[in-house]
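Researcher: First entry.
Model:
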Amino acid sequence: GAIRQDHIDFIAAGHGERPAVVWDEGALSYRALDDLSGRIARVLSDDLGLVPGGRVLLHGANTAQTVAAWWGVLKAAGVVVTTMPLLRSTELSVIAEAARIDVFLAEAHLAEAVEGARLATDRLSRGLYYGPGGELDARVVARTAELTAANLALRQEVAERKRAEAALRRSREQLRKLGDHLATVKENERKRIARE
């Protein structure tokens, strides 16, 4: 079955800071994996035009970034076609054609094989490399900055709306009090005139 976003959220919420991916140099927590894969999903959708059901060739070794990219494809509702890093360009082009690939993500150090495959098929016309020397990492950083700025602007807008709503409530209360006072003044004036 398909991996749904709520399943991924559930895993991240349930395990938070526990390690999800461990390698010699460190570990990536479930929360960090969820965050990084979400940003990769946005790059896939927004920058590369991946649509739900689109096929993504994922060409990389067993690394934390490959795992995050794999989850990112799933979060973008794509279909992951994972290939071994030992494949040559001729093999990659055959796979790209057979699987009807829409987008590729590949480790930068494997670019030679991917670029060779790109010469043989137009199925690999859109994609990014990740890892040292790759562009995906920079786009994820840029996406993070954009989302952070948008989040800040949204928070400021919400705060401004709350201030405006509070001012409106105060104005309505003052108007209600003025209306009550006016009614009292009119009643007192009516009584005064009636006495005269």
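Researcher: Second entry.
Model:
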Amino acid sequence: IAFRSLEGKIRDKDEQWKTAVHEAGHAVAALVLAPESLSTATIIPQGRVRGHVRFVRGESITESIDVVEDNAVIALSGSAAEEIILGKRYTSSMDDFTKARRNIFFLLWGIGAYGIEFAGFASSQHGEQPLSTTLAEKGELICSEKLKEFYNESTNIISENKDLVELIAHSLVEKSTLSKDDLLSLYKMKEEQKGA
């Protein structure tokens, strides 16, 4: 059976499975780190996106460092799932890495986390840049280190919950979309099996 995306491209079973594994990775990390914010997971293509996991955010626009870091780990977990379940990355996960990087830069430049003090910014064709080149280089180094740290955390979450990732991926292939209740039910079932 082939599936047509919104762009009219054929989605074969193999591509559908790869997308399901990727989205299941995001969902599992969210179930572990922030289950209250999870809304749905789907492999129904929308525009150029093959699938997505939707979140419900609280009303507060300010989030703790832990929440922003968890969001970065969740963003990287789709790629981690592909590597662990499929043996390598298949989908273009550049958007996920960009989201994780954006979270880290918010912590660095927005609130001065990781030992960086606010130093002012200058506008350029590349967006807002720190006034100090040395500070910008230090920020890039910290960002690279944090990306590695968060990717390792996402890999650990996926490795510890590999069976759950596969269960959610199979469910996504079967149903295309899973609600928060569906995801929580699968998570609870796997947790009960671990405890038995």
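Model: Note on the second entry: The helical segments are 13-33, 65-86, 94-110, 133-160, 162-175, 180-195.
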